[in-house]
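We emphasize that the prediction below concerns an isolated chain of 531 residues; any contacts that depend on oligomerization or on bound cofactors are therefore not represented. The input was used exactly as deposited, without trimming of termini.
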Amino acid sequence: MLGSADGRIRRFSYTGGARLPFHLALSLGMALLCCPALVQAQSVSRPVVQPLPPAASGELSDALKALARNSEDVDALIAAGEAAIKLDDIDAALGFLGRAQAISSDNPRINAGLAGIALRQDNPVRALQLYDEAEKAGLTMAPYAADRALAYDLVGNNARAQQLYKVALASGEDPQLRRQLAMSQAISGDKPAFEATLLPLLQQQDLSAFRTRAFGLAVLGETEEAVSIAEAMLPEKFSDRIAPYLRYMPRLTRAQQAAAANLGKFPDATKIGRDDPAMLAFGDTEKAAADDAASASSVNMEERLVPKGRQLGQKTSGEQAAARRGAAKIAPGRTAMAEDSELPAISPAQPSPAAPERPKERPGAALVKADTGASAEAAPAEPVRPVPEEQVKMQSLADAFSDFTLSPRDSAPVVPSGAVDLSKFEAPREKPAPPPKPKPPAHPSRNWVQVATGKNVSAFRFDWKRISRKADGLLDGKTPYTVPWVEANRLLFGPFPDLSDAQSMVKSLKEKGVDSFTFTSEEGEKITPLD
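Result of the prediction step, given as a token string:
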């Protein structure tokens, strides 16, 4: 029964199947009334979280739109180059900044962009030089403080790097910059500042912060503590690989420690503890002098611990000479004994035989015997037997070898008749097989010309037709290709045998009003023809 709007009772019947007992229906209704969340849970859907593209992708897209309107827009070219640097596309960044430099060579933003490229090409010295040139030209350097700070860390100037890290963090919190600042403080030996800077990230359970803490403690000399942190906080596959490098950290220079902790790049074994001399122009000379003084102090302390002077019981050269002179004056009839040696005992049961007449000793013989027997116990002197006269007379060297003759060296060997002289034959030697030629790579590095970018590859067909018409025959017979680029794709044609040929094509297309630039694919990078 249901109540109608006019207050009358309206009766209806259910014929769809078995009826639900009244007490069960009442219980179910009360449960739904008491727990409305159960009803809402059936209809509430959870949002699907998708990772957003990096902000640099949007910056690059805006710059490309501006270039589509005006290909000579220097600000748009520089913005595109800076966005490509953030996306780690160094080739594209060089292309954009190179075109901007050809139009406006004195723009300081171009030097700042090229400095960012040099830093990512492991050349911090050149990066700092370009940053200095841009600053002298009047460019505001605050937007470049983060990269400039890392460059100073990579040349060992931690004090200047920390100043710039704080400037960069003042414009907005960045966990990566905070980790780099903490690592710089650890390298400079400031453990309290290192721990204070890293504490907020550790409280957020940031695994990268625990990795930075491990490297920082290793630099500070607490290697075993660093290894234990890595084993406890990092995944096993990472901790096992990182432990040997943590033990190497104290042996590196400050610049090498910054490269290892921030970039994961360790020096070769021959360069451990040695910096490039070019870094001295930007390094922290006061800190380096202090390190050298501490090293020299430790060396002097080690030298003080080395025992000096003659050993206990060792006689001086004057005392040894006096002993040798005394040995030379031994009375006739006695054998010269070693210095400080004991005389052999004579058995009383056997009478000592009469000493035969000895041949005269040549001068200095006693001295030689005293020197050679200085460290060994003297043996009893054997009686000297007289030598027969017939043995004393010796033959001369010529008489001894008078019957021995040699054939002349230059005479040819005598070959018996009927024999074969094997010396005239040269034995054939097997030549090693030449090594097989290496197979050419499936996708070698080649030179291309890029004419467009976009996310939809299928739309490239219409773009290619439109660009071909605008090129006025320059693209006739050319095959378009595509290659992925970050979250978009490149539209290319080529390849060209040389980079100069690709640049000539870019110049020709420019005359037709078509914007393009060169692109060099890396070895192994697959270039796909456009269907």
